[in-house]
Amino acid sequence: MKSSNVVLKVVTGSYLLLFFVYLFLPLVFMAVVAFNTSSIPQVTPWEGFTFMWFGELFGDSQMWDGLINSFIVAFFVVIISVPIGLGASLLLTRLQFKAREGFYAILVSPLLMPGIILGISTFLFWDQAFQISGGLWTAIMGQSTFISGYCMLLIMARAQRFDKTQEDAAFDLGATHRQVFWKISLPFLKPALLSAAALAFMQSFENYNTTLFAIGFEQTLPIYIGSKLRSFISPAMNALACIFIGLTIAGATVYEIMRRRESGKK
Amino acid sequence: MRRLWEDAIRNFGGVGIAFILLTVGTWLIFMILLPQLIMLDYSFRPLLPLRKIGGPEDVYTLKNYIVLFTTPLHRAIFIKTIWSSIIVTTVALTICYPVAFYLAKVARGARLGWILMGLIIPYWINELLRIFAWQLILADSGILNQLLLFIGLIAEPLNFRAGNGAVIMGMTYAYILFMVFPLYNAMESLDRNQIDAARDLGSSWLRIHRRIVIPHAKPGIAVGCIMVFMLAAGSIAAPQLLGSPSSFWFTQIIYTNFETANWNQGAAYAMVLAVLCLIFIFGMLKLFRVGLKDLAS
């Protein structure tokens, strides 16, 4: 019994180790290449340590344009998706109606469809109905179509745990709908609204598929990365990848620390 | 209907109802339904020069769909999209199942936190960059070739990107984590006592998984498979970065259609892709006997 437990532990441990090597080794390679002097992105032969690819990246004005566009798009996606997610989650958690399930299916359907289809349909719709051709606005609309769905699911998860007696008590004491919303419902939903906003921002910031088809001739950062990687590959892209990895690790660490502090309080 | 209205008024008040109607209405009509209908409309119209649009030749036709099935190359590429997406989904499920089970039912406390963080970091790194990492590994002068040359297994660099393998590998790497999280979420809610009880009664681990864990994790398995299949079938980054120039993928045909301003053809192929994903979704729901509302968790 004991020895079989040890064997099981070793097997599980090695499996997990392999899995994480598989997840991280490619990323490590990609980051290391950013510091190799060689102008072809590769680890070997190692021609010397350099920061020059970061310099090349920062000197590329297209990268900055893409970055600014990404911020603009992500900002509006948050502004649009979080209220839509809030409205939909209130509707679905508070009201019982016959078509509820079918309605829910339609609202989550953009999450289950390939991004390129949302991009194409958004692009065609705005061109056809309003003569607005592809650009930042269509990218915002295309992304918000499915990001609103994520926001809805996040907010719904919290709204379902809401204790309705609090509201009823407030109403009995003569509170108005406005007072109940601002003093009771909104404070309760606030954590979910904040995570929905963060999620919407990140989803928008890294979206490629939907944006590629919706945006026409404009560029966000992922579109810029995509076009660079398809044409001439320079280690400047590794430098960008390096920055992305660094920011992600920093973000995840901050999130984890906050989460532990939060659970420590309870 | 009247009760619903009274319910709504009691719950939200007039301003609340207006807010919900405005937000959900905009989303439903202008972002979900109308764009899909316009795309459907495009897909049934012939490609015409601007001056002929609305003229006698502008009639509904199945031509854009028929092209797909009468062009052997396009048909073959479409079929390739189906089987390669199934491969990616199957591999992801096989690799992730043990990881998710370990996370949900074995790991605890700080270790669990670290492992989850180790999954979230690669999950949040841009899809393009994750696929780019494989470009570096599989390139002619890439790490894999260098390694194989170094240990003397090969004399000349191999062209890993010649067939479809590189694209499939890249897709698996890029989308595998979309399988882990749904599986983990579903397994986490399983009561450990059920597993312990089965073990005490002498069940083998295979039986425990077949009779207890898998039935419980069904919604998670369905969501994971749906997400990975959809991402793989709709992936354009992986073929663009890892595909060989001689072997196109379905999403690339659609992209080319839009580059050459043949929107009608592109819309038809996009509809076919959407229908493929719908069929897969309903197939999965039926196979695992779960409803759409179970997928939310």
Summarize the structure.
Chain A has 266 residues and is mainly α.
Description:
The complex is a heterodimer of chains A (266) and B (297). Chain A has 11 helices and no strands. Chain A is mainly α and 266 residues long. Chain A has one domain: MetI-like fold. In chain B, α9 packs across α10 (205-233) and α12 packs antiparallel against α13. Chain B has helices at residues 2-43, 63-70, 72-106, 109-124, 127-138, 143-150, 165-175, 177-188, 192-200, 205-233, 237-242, 250-259, 263-287. Chain B is mainly α and 297 residues long. Chain B has a single domain, classed as Orthogonal Bundle (MetI-like fold), CATH 1.10.3720. Chains A and B meet through α1, α3, α4, α5 and α6 of A and α1, α3, α4, α5 and α10 of B.
List the helices and strands and how they pair.
The complex is a heterodimer of chains A (266) and B (297).
Chain A: H1 2-33, H2 52-58, H3 61-94, H4 100-108, H5 115-130, H6 136-159, H7 164-172, H8 177-205, H9 209-214, H10 221-230, H11 236-265
Helix pairs in contact in A: 1-11, 2-11, 3-6, 3-8, 3-10, 5-6, 6-8, 7-8
Chain B: H1 2-43, H2 63-70, H3 72-106, H4 109-124, H5 127-138, H6 143-150, H7 165-175, H8 177-188, H9 192-200, H10 205-233, H11 237-242, H12 250-259, H13 263-287
Helix pairs in contact in B: 1-13, 2-3, 3-7, 3-8, 3-10, 5-7, 8-10, 9-10, 10-13, 12-13
